Amino acid sequence: MSHVLAAPPPEAAADWTVPQHWERFTAADHARWRTLFDRQMRLLPGRAAPAFLDGLAKLDLADGVPDFRRLSERLTRLTGWQVVAVPGLVPDEIFFAHLARRRFVAGNFLRDERQMDYLEEPDVFHDVFGHVPMLAHPGFANYMQAYGEGGLRSIGFGALDKLARLYWYTVEFGLVETAEGLRIYGAGIVSSAGESRFALESPSPNRLGFDLVRVMRTRYRIDAFQQTYFVIPSFEALLAATLETDFAPLYAELAVRPDLAISAVLPEDRVFTRGTQAEAAPHAA
Ligand code: HBI
Ligand code: FE
User: Fold this and answer.
1) Which ligand is closest to the CA of 189, given by its number?
2) Is residue 16 part of a domain?
3) Cβ–ligand 1 contact at 105 (below 6 Å)
């Protein structure tokens, strides 16, 4: 993670949090947030998981960059989570420690108008619009805390790179199977106009059934749309798979098995065909 500073910047606390200073966001910032919000809302009905859309409806994120104090009050009532501001990417250990305490860290800046489609570091739109709605879902909220606790333990096993793949292929780029077809819930997809369509409608990527070990063996790319997505049957199943697994022997097994290429499809993989009929999405572009 090349952008992570070695120590918290002078304005940050030891846990890397900073005051949000919500009042410093300008009218132009709020307008840019609304542009991003409105664009996603034209795409997400019929594509995003019902859990994501339900969370979004409860959180009041439409009007501009949210004030984290009010957002955290709402979220705390729903699932006990809070949102705290950080300058940008934080070290893994700090990130996991916040998750383990049910605190989600959000970058305290908004992308500029030249980066509306792509940026390298997570900004407040990715972090809040992308991640926070799912934290209003009790099962997913528990999964995220368990992930933080598991992340702290994985460092002791030297297995952080394996566990990071689980985060990548679920929290960031996950798909879920519903009675109506595949739906997106990963924050990296739901906060991206291009990938919201690509993940479900493009014929090119693989959509494979989720399997914990399979996912943790699979490399990932950070510089383009994903070539492989993993589909969970439900958020309850995802939580159960992680809570019921003893990761210590798993890490030992993973250490001696080769990584899988991003594009690999194994004979035992369940392969899904296209995510959703484009015509079934109410606002397909
Ligand atoms: N820092 N701000 C921020 N946001 C993240 O998503 C993040 C991070 N630091 C480390 C990190 N993620 C990784 O540990 C996970 O992607 C596994
Ligand atoms: Fe993210």
Assistant:
1) 2
2) no
3) yes
Testing ligand 1's pocket by substitution, the residue of 89, 153, 168, 216 carrying the most ligand atoms inside 8 A of its CB is: 89
| Number of neighbours of residue 236 by Cβ within 10 angstroms | 14
What predicted TM-score, i.e. pTM, was given to this entire model?
0.93
Please tell me if the CB atom of residue 109 comes closer than 6 angstroms to any atom of ligand 1. no
pLDDT-based confidence at residue 3 (cuts at 50, 70, 90):
low
The closest of 75, 92, 41, 68 to 196, measured between CA atoms, is 41
Residue 275's pLDDT band (cuts 50, 70, 90): low
Question: Total structural domains in the chain?
Answer: 1
10 domain-assigned: no
Atom of ligand 1 nearest to the CA of 168: 16
* Residue 153: domain span: 22-279
Cβ(75) – ligand 1 distance below 6 Å: no
CB atoms within 10 A of CB 128: 25
Pocket test for ligand 1, best of 16, 84, 92, 220 (most atoms within 8 A of CB): 92
Whole-number Å distance, alpha carbon 254 to ligand 2 midpoint, is 25
Q: Residue 281: CB partners within 8 Å, gap ≥ 6?
A: 45, 46, 47, 200
Per-residue pLDDT, 284 = 37
Q: How many residues does the structure list for the chain? A: 285
The label of the residue with tokens 């979004």 reads 56
Question: What is the per-residue pLDDT for 252?
Answer: 93
Strands 175-178 and 228-232: parallel
Asked, for residue 15, whether it belongs to a domain, the answer is no
Q: Residue 82's domain is classified under what CATH number?
A: 1.10.800.10
- Ligand nearest, relative to CA of residue 89: 1
Asked if residue 7 is part of any domain, the answer here is: no
pLDDT band at 89 (very low <50, low <70, confident <90, very high): very high
For the chain, give the mean pLDDT. Answer: 93
